[in-house]
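Hi! If you just cloned this repository, the fastest way to understand the data is to look at a raw example. We've pasted two of them here, unedited. The first protein comes first, obviously.
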Amino acid sequence: MRVDALYGRGRPIVSFEFFPPATPEGEAALVRTIEALRPLAPSFVSVTRTGVRPREAPVELAMQIKGLGIEGAAHMTCVRDTREEIATLLDLMVARGIENVVALRGDIPPDPAFRRPDDGFHYAADLIAFIRARGYPLCVTAAGHPEGHPECRDLDLSIAHLRAKVDAGVDVVITQLFYDNDDYFRFVERARHAGIRVPLVPGIMPITNWPQIERITRLSGNQVPAALRERLERLRDDEAGAMTVGVEWATEQCADLLRSGAPGIHFYTLNKSPATRAIFERLIAAAAVPHP
């Protein structure tokens, strides 16, 4: 089923994101993790692309997820690939029955010798336009940036870039992580003012390990509210305590987002299930999301 068909049915959509592990053992462990979350009946699961696995890995894992009875979406990036390589991957998705693609530019490698392919794409909007021009029957999801892109902190310009992606053919937008809901609400307001009407789904990354999230936010430029940072700093060497705080904060975030009209929640799981499961179960108990 196409992901865009899931939204607008009058109930919030909950989805998860994973990435292909580097080893067969890791992949087997990830499948067990996804199976543990299956009783919660997520609406779909997306699979990112990482540099340690071939570009086909997200498609292969999305197929396994569909085999578990959960809809899958495969990520693809364009910064490294030629148009022929991109077309081959899109052909594979369609042949394997994948109906949903998350189209991203991807991170530019830090290697100063790196050069983009001459016939590749510079921006996600170009990739999206290519998917539409070729007529692939795919639901296209793209990324939104409530706090601005790491390479563009101008929030109005960031919305202009998002509008270019939507005009190129995006069906759904999932935001990057954030820890202050006001950032999301202001992002939605700017997007709607710019004429963007597709679902704008908040992306939530529960904090389970403070030093790890500290590194991630330092690289991405995302802000951690002072009240949350202070609580986590006191628990720097207490991973269980930090996870408890992270689950509480994310649960409150999600409940507030859903009360305020967000179309759903997309969890960045970092391939771990306990925190996401705990948050999801609390939201079910509070009737913020339907019981599966």
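Ok, and the second one:
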Amino acid sequence: MVKGVKFLGLRDAGDPVEIAKVYDRQEADELVFLDITASFENRKTLIGLVEQIAKNIFMPFTVGGGIRDIDDIRDLLNAGADKVSINTAAVKCPDLISEASRKFGSQCIVVAIDAKLVQSKVPSTLPGRQAGEYRVPSTSWEVYINGGRTPTDLDAVEWVKKVAGLGAGEVLLTSMDYDGTKDGYDLALTKATCEEVNIPVIASGGAGKLEHFYDVLTKTGAAASLAASIFHYGEYTIKQVKEYLKEKRVAIRL
């Protein structure tokens, strides 16, 4: 198991099966397993590892990475996954979303979206600036595939609307700008997305403090929040986060 910052600088975070057992004991609401290099390396998800994890946990289990077709989805469900998360394949073949939803039910089809803020190029003709161009943040985000390696020119908010229309049951939305930074979730991206669809959106990328969970769940419309670093490295337990949210009167299952 690995964790990085902004999809870079991956470092070891422990054995996935053993840590899955820990999260099961801590009563996580769901476990998300993403084989982040499978699509880039043009290989399938590690089915054997999925089977090992599934045998050792008793909570909803979502698996993604390396999924290319209906057979891959079926294999993961047979291996013990409750839901499958598709990203690269969904962008390359959007019909896979609708086909998978028809065959297996939309409740187990999650579309993962890795989004990065678009930096607009503006001519530097303003007083006090040197000739040339400079970049300013825009209010749009671009979808990336292949584990955050490949830009697509797809607008993230428009893509979310499309996948919802194709039958996705959930969206797993990861901010590449905030991933691993522990600076908080990308509230602007998450809010812009949630306002456009009626299906659950899981916010991902940036959790570092208890307040970050509260902010994303109360200010954006997100149905759930995903976190990795703060749990993997023992900074907080899942129980601590849940108790904090309960005290803040956020609907949470303890």
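That's it. A detail worth noticing about the second one: The mean pLDDT is 88.
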